[in-house]
Write a structure and sequence with these properties.
Blueprint: H1 25-49, H2 56-68, H3 77-101, H4 120-138, H5 142-167, H6 173-184, H7 193-222, E1 228-231, E2 238-243, H8 247-257, E3 262-266, H9 277-281, E4 286-289, H10 297-303, E5 307-310, E6 326-328, E7 338-339, H11 346-353, E8 366-369, H12 373-378, H13 380-389, E9 394-400, H14 409-417, E10 422-427, E11 441-442, E12 445-446, E13 448-452, H15 457-471, E14 480-485, H16 489-500, E15 507-509, H17 518-528, E16 531-532, H18 536-544
Parallel strand pairs: 2-3, 2-5, 3-4, 5-6, 6-7, 9-10, 9-14, 10-13, 14-15, 15-16
Antiparallel strand pairs: 1-8, 11-12
Helix pairs in contact: 1-2, 1-3, 1-4, 1-6, 2-3, 2-5, 2-6, 5-6, 5-7, 5-16, 6-7, 7-16, 14-18
The chain binds FE-S-O hybrid cluster and iron/sulfur cluster.
The site of iron/sulfur cluster has 12 residues, from loops.
Length: about 550
């Protein structure tokens, strides 16, 4: 196997034997075969579009299944076998539709014509052969290979956002058309390094569209988040835990658990759901937040006295102490777990009702979430006045993914050391390293504001652009520094969006992506002044101009 798509990749290079995330070589090969077939589906979809044939099922399938290959989403070989057969059926159906109006159109040998092997072992071998072919061809130019991987991983991020947005009724054909084109074009041989850089930046541009669609879906369905206090403790009674990012899944779970005597707790990236009026205010049994970031789930899930629903990433290999209480939804999968179909959560609800639930109130603390773009920009005048008076010296966006590496303590220390006249905006699961710190306020403006999930990066972008506009400066002249942590492929797509917007001086950690070659990194450093994190003291001093 060869997989280098996430920050915990083995040896900082690639997972060759077994995924550090728990992904088996078998699943890795099936994912590669599926991705290859999506390239073929892309070729057919592009050709069909030229004749006005758009197949929304194929578009949505591309995003859902690409999402399923993102880190910590789906570990189940059976899911991928089904996806592989569906990809071929969709591709061949679309081909037949196209050839009915344009019989002369034909496709070269490759992903648009490949037929599946008959057995699981042979499908796995097919995936391995495809992966080997891709790597051996691509490795002839290590920098182009690096950019191709960046594009594939960025597309996975787009696919994740597009999947969530579509579930909430938001779609855009430009996004689907680009995904097909980018996937289909991965084998192009006549492109220069500059051409591949342009495609990578286009991934960033389309990702902005994907995030905008998701923002519309979330706010259109559940209202704009408002600052909301969230208990970190529990209340006696039956309990169900929901993790991941999908607000539609959470809403349906809330509907189905209403008046059943069950309290719903969020875990990980679901914390910002409490800020949405259409969720928290409408469903009072959405009680509190339990636990911290994804990498702590094995310890935290083991102690939770009820069912655990995993809506999207990040799922870790479940331990035996709680595996029979974990339920998966949508593109998430683990062999043998009960998969929730059609958002019918009754198996998870029955499991929670059969469990003891909580008997005490636990942790008495609360945290605040809900500082998305509407809430922050609603107090923009006060913020601007505070900056002009010199009460606020600088903003830090300390956001991104969390993970298990001890070097991620950098982000905790960084926030602890931020001077008292500075404000920290945060988002995504990286915040769990400091989300419960009481940083106080500056003239009523909180010094720590949680913008939301990684899926709410659009909100952070809009806040940045609006502040730049209000101050009449470019984004790079704002008193704002971005200190980002990455782990999986949504972070890759967000980084490409920030480059597309011309945002410079980002500090990235805890390590640089293994798939970025030295030359590509040099290019990004020269163009965007992208830097790897140093020490909190050095980086703070550099950002504040005091070094
Ligand atoms: Fe965190 Fe994991 Fe949010 Fe990423 S919960 S690292 O895939 O999606 O951020
Ligand atoms: Fe390794 Fe990350 Fe790929 Fe898992 S997703 S196999 S940990 S690089």
């Amino acid at each position: 196997m060869y997989c280098s798509q996430c920050e915990q990749t083995a040896g900082g290079e690639a997972c060759y034997q077994w995924g550090a995330c728990g992904k088996s070589p078998e699943v890795d090969a099936l994912q590669d075969l599926l991705t290859h077939l999506l390239r073929g589906l892309g070729q057919v979809a592009i050709a069909a579009r030229k004749y006005g044939i758009i197949n929304r099922q194929a578009d949505r399938f591309t995003c859902e299944t690409l999402f399923s290959t993102l880190t910590n989403v789906n570990f189940d070989p059976e899911s991928f076998v089904q996806y592989i057969h569906q990809a071929i059926a969709l591709r061949d159906g679309l081909k037949a539709q196209l050839q009915a109006v344009a019989p002369e159109v034909c496709f070269p040998e490759g992903p648009a014509t490949l037929q599946p092997a008959p057995t699981l072992d042979q499908l796995v071998q097919q995936g391995r052969d495809i992966e080997y072919g891709f790597i051996s061809k691509a490795a002839k130019n290590v920098d182009i290979f690096s950019l191709k991987l960046t594009i594939i991983y960025g597309l996975k991020g787009i696919a994740a956002y597009a999947y969530h947005a579509q579930e909430l009724g938001q779609e855009d054909d430009r996004l689907y058309a680009f995904c097909h084109e980018a996937l289909a074009g991965l084998d192009s041989v006549d492109l220069t390094l500059e051409d591949w850089v342009k495609i990578a930046l286009k991934v960033g541009e389309i990702n902005l569209l994907a995030m905008e669609l998701l923002d519309s879906g979330n706010t259109g369905n559940y209202g704009h988040p408002v600052p909301t206090r969230v208990p970190l403790g529990t209340q006696p009674g039956k309990a169900i835990l929901v993790s991941g990012h999908d607000l539609k899944d959470l809403e349906e779970l809330l509907k189905q658990t209403a008046n059943q005597g069950i309290s719903v707790y969020t875990h990980g990236e679901m914390l910002p759901a409490h800020g949405y009026p259409g969720l928290k205010q409408k469903y009072p049994h959405l009680y509190g937040h339990y636990g911290t970031a994804w990498q702590n789930q094995t310890r935290e899930f083991a102690k939770f006295p009820g069912a655990i629903v995993m809506t999207t990433n990040c799922l870790m290999p479940p331990h035996n102490t709680y595996i029979d209480r974990v339920f998966t939804c949508g593109p998430v999968g683990w062999p043998g777990l009960t998969h929730i179909e059609n958002r019918d959560f009754s198996p998870a609800i029955a499991c929670s009702l059969s469990m003891p639930g909580f008997t005490d109130n636990g942790d008495p603390r609360q945290v605040t979430t809900g500082f998305a773009r509407n809430a922050v920009l609603g107090v923009a005048d006060e913020v601007i006045a505070a900056v002009k008076r010199g009460d606020i010296r600088h903003f830090f966006l300390v956001g991104g993914c969390d993970g298990a590496k001890p070097s991620r303590n950098y982000y905790t220390e960084f926030v602890e050391k931020v001077p008292e006249d500075c404000v920290v905006l945060t988002l995504a699961c990286g915040k769990f390293r400091f989300f419960d710190k009481e940083l106080g306020d500056i003239g009523g403006i909180p010094r720590l504001m949680d913008v939301g999930q990684c899926n709410d990066a659009y909100s952070a972008v809009q806040i940045t652009l609006a502040l730049a506009n209000a101050f009449g400066v470019g984004v790079n002249e704002l008193p704002l520094s971005m200190i980002l942590s990455w782990y999986e492929q949504k972070a890759v797509s967000i980084l490409l969006t920030l480059f597309h917007l011309g945002i410079k001086n980002i500090r990235l950690g805890p390590t640089l992506p293994a798939f970025i070659s030295p030359n590509v990194f040099q290019l990004l450093s020269q163009t965007y002044n992208l830097k790897e994190i140093g020490t909190p003291e050095e980086d703070l001093a550099a950002c504040l101009g005091t070094s």
